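[Solved] Which block belongs to which protein?

Original post:
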Amino acid sequence: MTDIAEERIVFAVMTNTDLTEGRGHQYVKHYCWLKATAVRLAIRSYVQGANSPVREQVAYRIGGTWYLPGKIEKATEADKIAQASIDEKQEAADKFDRAVEAAIKAGLSEEHIQALKGQA
C-alpha cells in the first residue's frame, strides 16, 4: 500500500437536500482549493436562498491522486484575487493576536488590552 504523500486543506460548500425548510440531509455540494472559490459557489445555494456554510476539510494525495469524496472545483482568476484579500486579512488578524499575546506577557492590564482591541 502506498503512503499518504501530502495532506491539504480544501473548502467544502455544504447544502441540504431540502432547500425549502432545511429538514433534509446536509451534504457537500462543492470542494474547492481556495476559500474564495467556495465563498463564490456558496452564494444563495442553501436553504431558502441563504448562503451555504463553508467548512474546512482535508484531502489526501496518495501517489499522484488526491482523495476525497467528490470533485475539486477550479479557481477562477477572480477567485485568486479574492483569495489574496482573504489571506491578507487573516495575516493581519494573526499579527494582531500575536501583538495582544506579547502585551499580556509584558504585563498590560485587561483594561489596556481591551483598549488595544478597541473595546474600551
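(Second protein starts here: sequence line, then its C-alpha cells.)
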Amino acid sequence: MDGFVFAGWVVRIPEVKAQVGAAPAALGLALLGVSGGAVATMTVTGRLCRRFGNHPVTIGCGLVLALGVALPPLTHSAAALGCVLLVFGAGYGGLNVAMNAAAVDLVVALRRPVMPGFHAAYSFGGLAGAALGGLLAPHLSPERHLLLLAAVALAITVAAGRVLLRHPLPAAGPAPAAAPDGPRTRTDGGEAWRNVRWLVVTLGLVAMCDSYGEGAMADWGTLHLSGDLGAGAGLAAAGYAVFALAMAIGRLAGSAALERFGRTRVLVVGALAASAGMLVAALAPVTWLVIAGYAVTGLGIANIFPAAIARAGTLGGANGVALASTFGYGGMLLGPPAIGFIAQGAGLPVALTTVAALAAVAALIAFAVRGADRGGGVGRGGGAARTPEG
C-alpha cells in the first residue's frame, strides 16, 4: 500500500503542477514538503512506537498517509501544495519507521532475515501504482484518481490494522550484551542504547549511500537516457523500469541470500556490484549498455537498505529504525539536488558517477564494521539464529 500510494501520487505531479500554476523552482520547494515532512517525523515516530507499540502507530500513520494523498489536487497555489505535502510526507515517513519497526519484531520472532521480502512488496507496490496511474491518467482527473487511492489505502489500513492489533509482538530492544564465555544476555535502558548508537548511525550511513542512488535514479535515470544518449521517451522510461524491476527481484531473493551468505557479504558484494553497474551506466556510450548497467545497479542495491534497517532495529528497536531511517531517507532527499548541482557544472554522466562512488563507500563501511556487527542477522540471544559473517 505504501509504495502503491506514493507511486500513484508521483505520476500525477505534472497535472498538479499545472493546476497550481507553479514555476519549476516553486514546485521544487513545494515537493520538498514530502521529504521534509517525512524526515521531521521519523525520530518522533520512534518515540511513539516505544510508548504505544509498533502496530498501533503503524495503523495511525497509514491513516494519515491515506488521507494525505487526497489533498494535493485540492490546492491552487504552490504554498498550499507544500503545506499539504508536509502532511502527506509525515504519514509516509512515520509509516516507514513504524512498519519497519514492526517488521523487525517479526524478523526477531521468526529468527529469519525476512526483511527484504517486505521491501520487495514496497517495490512491487510502486511498480503497480505507477502502471495503474499511467492507465488512469487519460481517463480520471488527479482529484478523482488520488481520492480513489485514498479509499483503497484506507480499506487496506483498516483490514491490516485488525490483524496487527490482534497479534502484538514483543518489541525488539537494544542489542543483547555479549557475555565473555556464554550466550548473549539481554540488557535494557539508556546505557544499552548508548553502546549501540554508533553502530546504528554507521548502518544509517550505509542506508544513506543506498538511498542516494535510489533517489538519483528515480529523478535522473530517464533524463540520462533521453538527454545524453538521445533515447525516445518510451525507451528512457523502460530504462528506469528495468532498474526498478531488478531491485524488486533482488529483494525477493534477499532473504535466501542473507541466510546463505550472511549480511556482510550481501552488503559488500551488493554495494560493489551497484558501484560497477552505475559506473557503466553513467559512462557507457550506447543505450543498451546503460540499461544493462541500470539492471546491475538495481540488483546490487536491492538489499542494502532493508538489511541495514533490519540490523539497526535488532540493535536499537524502534529508536534504531528511526535513527537509521532518518539517515537513509536523508540520502534520498540529498541525492536528486546533489546530482542536479553537479550536472550543472560537469554534466549528468559525471554527476551520476557519484552514485557509484557512494555505493563503493557503503561497501567499505560494511566491511569495516564487520567485526563490531558480528551478532548475527536476526538473533536476540538465547538460541537465536546466527548468520555467517564473511
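Accepted answer:
You had them paired correctly. Confirming on the second one: The chain has two domains: 1-172, 186-378.
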